[in-house]
Amino acid sequence: MEEKHLSYWIRIPVLAVDLLIAAVLYLVSVIVLFRNTPTAAELGYNIGSQQVAGQQSQVILLGALVWLVYSLLVSLLFNKSLGHLLLGIKLSSHDNSKFRNVFSVILSPLVFFDKLLGVSLVRSRKINPFIKVFTVLASLGSLIAIPGLLLYVFLIGFIFLAPRTSTDDNFTLCGERFCLVKANTSCEKNLDFVRSRVVEIVGKNFTGTGFLISDSLVLTNYHVVEQEPVVSIRESNGRISEAKVYNANPDLDTAILVGQFTKGEHIQFVNPTDFGEGTTDLYAIGFPSSVLRQAGTGPLTVTSGIYSAFLDYKDEGFQLVQTDAAANPGNSGGPLVNKCGQVFGMVTLSEKFDPYTNEIKEGLNYAISSTTLVPELNRLSN
Questions:
Q1: Does 281 map to a domain?
Q2: Mean pLDDT of the 190-200 span
Q3: pLDDT at 376 over 90
Q4: Confidence (pLDDT) at 293
Q5: DSSP per-residue string spanning 131-177
Q6: 169 to each of 176, 181, 219, 342, how far by Cα in Å?
Q7: Is 168 a member of any domain?
Q8: Cβ contact 62:99 at 8 Å
Q9: Around 176, how many Cα atoms within 13 Å sit in the side-chain half-sphere?
Q10: Are residues 63 and 202 in the same domain?
Q11: Span 71-122, pLDDT tens digits
Q12: Which of 120-129, 210-219, 264-273 has the lowest mean pLDDT?
């Protein structure tokens, strides 16, 4: 059958077909590999951080890997690409080398590189109507595929060449995911902001409190979730979703839950020692349990008190914040904050009874200090 050599421009619709097929394979691969994985940004990293860049690089390089596998397998099977096959085109060289053809397909995004390999495109002078129609459609598809290829190349350059930071904290650059911000009494945020980030943790036989430290992480006490690694999370907007224990430290009664939650600004942690004991108002926010409250339906409560003391247990390696803000069962895991919505600590226990005098105690409520929480969060979240 008589054949004719084709114009170099026929490579454009051929490449468009292969790029569109590879794009579908790439999309499926991304969904399968990353659908249950929270992004680094959701885990609290700044968009410009090394961590986010690393995850972006994985996704971008997956595209290159998908193309390499696709083009290699197809060219080995058919001695050409699916684009050539669907458009009725053959690869031709002076020695009909399969090696040349394989490399020609793999490097086809360079469009004219096959000329350096001595490979030309040929097709029968008599082609059926289907091939003619498909060539037209492929030419139209190139209006999407070629700009998509250029965008992909741009993203590669941007991901690998753009400068990176290590945090999105506007107050201090600590080089970690979570930081203690400098004391700021201008109150850029308030209690309403913190209330929107506090969640109720509902298990089969318990309720507790936690708060969002990123778009996919909830901080709470370990004793709240130690019996059930998978719980329900009720947000302030009524949204209910599932979360599971991501990591925990029973010794510090600290646990991180992972899930997909409502996006919002992140809570700020401050060093309690930057504020005056006995003069700073604090607020405990949470979902206290009660026989009159049905699990998962009770309102969020706020109790106020004074920053009583900062307790540093150096030998044990942790610090507590003492307050007389009322904390009841169910409040465990909730934030203890100042009027600016800055977190002093996480409510963890109340001392209600003196075993030596049998007297009822009031105003002895404790929170794990932010100075203990922040380093532990950076360790657990990694």
A1: yes
A2: 91
A3: yes
A4: 52
A5: HHHHHHHHHHHHHHHHHHHHHHHHHHHHHHHS--BS---SS---SSS
A6: 10, 8, 19, 13
A7: no
A8: no
A9: 15
A10: no
A11: 999 999 998 999 988 898 888 887 778 888 888 888 888 766 666 778 888 8
A12: 120-129
Distance, CA of 287 to CA of 332 (rounded, Å): 9
What does the alpha-carbon distance between residue 81 and residue 78 come to, in Å, rounded to a whole number? Answer: 7
User: How do 353-354 and 359-360 pair as beta strands?
Assistant: antiparallel
How far is Cα of residue 126 from the mean position of the Cα atoms in its chain?
Answer: 54
Structure tokens at 15: 């490449």
48-62, 159-173, 221-235: the lowest-pLDDT one: 159-173
pLDDT for 190: 86
Which parts of 183-298 fold into alpha helices (H)? 191-195, 222-225
Percent of the chain with pLDDT over 90: 34
* Nearest residue to 304 (alpha-carbon basis) of 277, 287, 288, 280: 280
Question: What pTM was estimated for this model as a whole?
Answer: 0.62
Distance of alpha carbon 312 from alpha carbon 254, whole angstroms = 17
Please state the length of the chain: 382
Q: Strand 230-234 and strand 198-202: pairing?
A: antiparallel
- Whether residue 291 is predicted with pLDDT greater than 50 in this model: the reply is no
Domain with 319, as residue range(s), is: 180-380
Does 107 lie in the same domain as 153?
Answer: yes
Tokens for 368, please give them: 């794990």
Query: Do 269 and 134 fall into the same domain?
Result: no
pLDDT for position 304 = 92
Amino acid, res. 11? R
CATH number at residue 349: 2.40.10.120
121 found inside a domain = yes
Co-location of 241 and 375 in the same domain: yes
Q: Could you give the 3-state DSSP secondary structure of residue 194? A: helix
Q: Are 63 and 26 spatial neighbours (Cβ–Cβ below 8 Å)?
A: yes
Among 219, 222, 176, smallest CA distance to 379 is for: 176
- Inter-residue contact 311 to 319 (CB < 8 Å): yes
Domain assignment present for residue 359? The answer is yes
